[in-house]
Specification:
3-stranded antiparallel β-sheet; Pemi-like Protein 1, Chain: D; alpha+beta; binds zinc ion; single chain; 2 helices
């Protein structure tokens, strides 16, 4: 993709906003320093924003020498999470991904 003013190739960059919760990509012109999002990038940001608005809050508590996270009932039911079941925790760039096994 080229800059409409300078006619040189734009660079795709990634930034994070909203308390490090929302990562987004945008185009940057190295000459005039214009920045903008194309429709694909805009839709991606909108999708992430909608997911953030649907997010539920969970509180950490002390459990022996560990920290426990209480999963809200509706979420536990939706993912068939029950005591004794296991999950994989994966460190991602700005988050911890939890996959119920
Ligand atoms: Zn430019």
């Amino acid at each position: 993709m080229k800059c409409h003013k300078c006619n040189i190739e734009l660079l795709e960059r990634t930034d994070v906003s909203g308390k490090d919760l929302l990562e987004y990509k945008y185009w940057h012109c190295p000459r005039c320093r214009d920045e903008f999002l194309d429709m694909g990038q805009l839709h991606e940001v909108a999708e992430k924003e909608r997911a953030l608005r649907r997010a539920e809050k969970a509180k950490f508590s002390k459990w022996g020498n560990s920290v426990a996270l209480r999963i809200p009932k509706a979420l536990a039911k939706a993912f068939k999470i029950a005591p004794g079941k296991t999950a994989l925790l994966m460190k991602e760039k700005n988050a911890i991904k939890l996959v119920v096994e």
